[in-house]
Amino acid sequence: MTRAFVLHPDIRTDQGRRDAAHALEEAVALAAALPGLAVEGAEIVRLPRAHPGMLFGSGKIEELGTRFAEAGVELVLIDGPVTPVQQRNLERAWKVKILDRTGLILEIFSDRAATREGVLQVEMAALSYQRTRLVRAWTHLERQRGGLGFVGGPGETQIEADRRAIDEQLVRLRRQLDKVVKTRSLHRAARAKVPFPIVALVGYTNAGKSSLFNRLTGAEVLAKDMLFATLDPTMRAVRLPNGPEVILSDTVGFISDLPTELVAAFRATLEEVLEADLILHVRDISHPETEEQAGDVRKILDDLGVQERTPQIEIWNKMDLLDAEGREAARTTAARREDVVALSAWTGEGLDILVDRVRHALEGERHAGEVHLGFSEGRRRAWLFERNLVQDERQDDDGYHLSVRWSPKQEAQFRSLEREDG
């Protein structure tokens, strides 16, 4: 186990300054999400401004260095951006490895990536990040350890050689990723022939998306109290009670200050969100910074290009963690809004309301209709039965006479089907 220490610089001049205590708590949770680390301690360091060369003041650097040496700390995680020069100087002063917030997130993504596409995207994001840190070395291209190599600590090598090696790696990875994305697009095209709507779960990391996904689908998706527990989208087909069959997609959790290169690299991984018919924004309503977290999620959705026309339902999850007064207030507020559902994925409270809202959002108001099909139109008849749209059916010499109840969207889909037996 690598002995690590977490520091959150609380810089007074930082315009995007967060509550320091909550930020430190999240940073410690991030560190806990990376296997092989033992967090020995954590501290908020308050600064009037960031020092260009060392980030911290000389007195604080000396004090922390003594403590790190006494505790046998090998890795210091700094919750914020650290310039290459600051990283090099701090490593020399403390004789430990330094990892900033972006580097830590990349390490976690590397550990969590499960699909070929996810692995390639993490590597590309890591390369883009590493290329900007020209005072650092790139000897871990040879992969002497797991992960991305930031924690293990590379030695020194020529910067220009590193830059060429990185560029060559990026070209190779882009070619591989193009092939993988092309394969995914073929799968997507095949799935599009089955007109099941896509419902995407999004939200701040640790909001309970995977727990809700499991509750709705019965799937054994990794659902731990750990940041970034899910990385690659997990997709399942599920039939809603008294409703349509949908494809439910669980996606990686978003987080504040997500590196821009990581958002770009994971655009294809989040393509189910871009193509979704409905987005379920899952919030941890019990978290003290739930409003700030929701704002971060909305910003990333905007960065990803999610259009406003994609309907969204906001899910206030973890109601079971609120006190009685808080639960009642949340229920009252949610009851007044069509786009909010208060629930607990843990206890199941509110799930029936969510299913009703999802069904209504996807189908709209249903209306009665009559359909006449010839005996040769078995495929269209099967399409109606597969979606539980048939209320009554009778048969005569001319074919099938069906009484259906459907939404305008379902009727349009049915009318567009070819009038021949498939």
Task: Give the helices and strands, then pairings.
Blueprint: E1 2-11, H1 20-32, E2 37-47, H2 58-71, E3 75-78, H3 84-94, E4 97-100, H4 101-112, H5 116-131, H6 159-192, E5 198-203, H7 209-217, E6 234-239, E7 245-250, H8 260-265, H9 271-275, E8 278-284, H10 290-304, E9 312-317, H11 324-335, E10 340-342, H12 351-363, E11 367-373, H13 378-386, E12 390-396, E13 399-406, H14 408-416
Parallel strand pairs: 1-2, 1-3, 3-4, 5-7, 5-8, 8-9, 9-10
Antiparallel strand pairs: 6-7, 11-13, 12-13
Helix pairs in contact: 4-5, 5-6
Give a summary of the structure in a few sentences.
This protein has 422 residues and is of the alpha/beta class.
